[in-house]
Write a structure and sequence with these properties.
about 300 residues, alpha+beta, Jelly Rolls, Arc Repressor Mutant, subunit A, 5-stranded mixed beta sheet, 5-stranded antiparallel beta sheet, about 15% strand
């Protein structure tokens, strides 16, 4: 059984690495200054951002592994497991880590906004690959936070630290958006696979057993996290992944209605349990109910 380090506070990780705890709710680690270190497979009770500048160590995330490349940013949130199991040997790595406890954000605007930074739920193999300029911006902010927590605590310290973290997250969001834009070819391939997966789902009759396809199902088939898939589709097409699925359902519903099937039969065919649920979705997507659509078809025939 794998030994897992419980990182319930930033200080837990600092202590494991033999570093002093400068602040009860925030830690900044400069791996270049303390390497070599013992690796650890961690269960996080904190938010953590890892900037890895080395390429020689394989990381584990959940049930998968990922060999990352230089200047990669990895983000985790409370409840996640990641890292590399301790095998008793020391490893040499370079880069930085920022860990902060959710309590640091209590009562601040960022507490309510941090859930919008969906990259905290990305898989490790969906890490942010940065340019040198982007890398330098992130490092400068990490150094600023490190300087601040090394200062004597005063009434303004936490506000300043939160301000830096807020700015860092905004830069991460900008850089991820850039990554989605610059990987247009890969994005196009994923969109094609997304559509092919939907088509196969209905061709195999999976809707009869599992209902309509979910974003989680699509993400699993495409080997992605749901958040990354959703963000990629949103940034590439301007629409959500859920809306893409609903559009496919509506097309199949229209085909079924045009062939003379009843609303109940069409709902069953596409995996919707109750006809009224189909009617609501159909109305939302097309601006008309299935009944109104049937009447429109009949009018066109006449």
């Amino acid at each position: 059984m794998s030994k897992i380090l419980k990182v319930n506070t930033p200080g837990d990780y600092s202590t494991y690495l033999g570093q002093p705890v400068r602040h009860p709710l925030v830690s900044v680690i400069d791996y270049n200054a303390i390497s070599p270190i013992r690796s650890s497979l961690n269960h996080y009770g904190v938010y953590a951002i890892f900037l890895r500048d080395d390429t020689s160590v394989s990381l584990q995330y959940g049930c998968g592994k990922y060999d990352y490349r230089e200047s990669t940013l990895l983000c985790v949130s409370p409840g996640q497991i990641g890292g590399k199991q301790d095998d008793g040997e020391s490893i040499t790595i370079s880069g930085w880590a920022l860990l902060f406890h959710p309590d640091l954000l209590h009562g601040t605007p960022l507490e309510k906004l941090i859930h919008r930074y969906s990259f905290f739920q990305y898989h490790v193999n969906e890490g942010l690959h940065m340019s040198k300029q982007e890398h330098d911006i992130i490092v400068s902010l990490l150094k600023a936070i490190q300087r601040e927590i090394n200062e004597e605590h005063d009434n303004d310290q936490d506000d300043i630290i939160i301000g830096y973290i807020n700015l860092l997250l905004k830069y991460c969001k900008r850089f991820y958006n850039r990554q989605f834009v610059t990987q247009k070819h890969d994005n196009s391939d994923i969109l094609t696979r997304f559509q092919e997966t939907l088509t196969k789902y209905f061709a195999d009759g999976m809707q009869f057993e599992h209902g309509i396809p979910t974003i989680q199902y699509m993400a699993d088939k495409l080997c992605m996290s749901p958040n990354y898939l959703g963000d990629l589709i949103k940034r590439t097409t301007g629409e959500t992944a859920g809306n893409h699925i609903r559009n496919v359902l509506v097309i199949r519903a229209k085909n079924g209605l045009a062939s003379g099937k009843t609303i109940s039969e069409v709902a069953f065919d596409i995996g919707i349990e109750y006809p009224q649920h189909l009617s609501r979705m159909f109305k939302k997507q097309t601006g008309m109910t299935p009944t109104e659509y049937i009447r429109q078809l009949q009018h066109q025939i006449m």
